[in-house]
Each structure stands twice: as structure tokens, then as C-alpha cells.
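Take a specimen:
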Amino acid sequence: MNLIGHLACAGDASAAVRVGALLPDLLSLYRRKARPQPLVAHWNEQGAALPGADAVVAGINFHHHVDREFHHAPLFEETAAAVQAGMKAASDTPGLKRFLPAHILTELFLDHLLLQDHPEWERVFYTALESQRRPVLVPFVSAHPLVH
């Protein structure tokens, strides 16, 4: 759920690559079981001629690369562990799931910190989404069977 983090990591990439880098987390917000891999497979199998689809796929792949690196970084691991420990201290309910909420809260908090330092990224985020909504994002995502 670290949308701003993925946007920041994408840097000066094209808007289509940026949207692709956001897509895995955006899809999971829309519908938890909706994953971008079936979309990538669809476009690869069909050889779809949707302009910008290759850039979106590159962004999706970049997202997964960033996640693999970030989720093993001490900053993330230590922060998520502290959040998880705080949740356990607040409620010692047996069986209470703490890993996923701690993971998400850590990512949201880091996005908050990024936006405090770079408030202009909010505008960049919405501009990238809007610029790619009709030409690439809607046709790309509408192929996903779980989106309908």
C-alpha cells in the first residue's frame, strides 16, 4: 500500500510505467484477489496492440522488484516489527493477526513521511493516473476477470 513510495522509486519514468508501478497495490485496494499477473499474461498471450501496455507491464515488474528489495530492508523490517510489537502490547488476544496490519501500517506511514517531505508527489500521483486512465489503464484493467 505504499503508493507514493512506488511512485518515488519510479522517478522520471513515463506516466504509463508509473501507473504500472502503482497497479499491483491499486488492484489490491479495489479487490483483494485481483492481481496484475493475469493482466500481464493476457497482454503477452494476445499480443495486444494497446499502446502503452508494454510500459504498464514494465511498471508492474518494477513494482515487484522494489517490493522484493524494500521488504528485506532494515528500515521496513524494523519499523514493521515495532508496529507489530505495539499491536501485541495493545491487545494480547490469541490468534489475532498482526503481521499484515503491521505491514500495511508501516507502508502507509512511510508514504505519509514521503508526502511530508515532497507534497508535490500528491499532484504527480493523480496526474499520472489521470493521464493514463483512458488510453491505457481502463482497457488494460478491464481485461481482468475479477474486475467485473
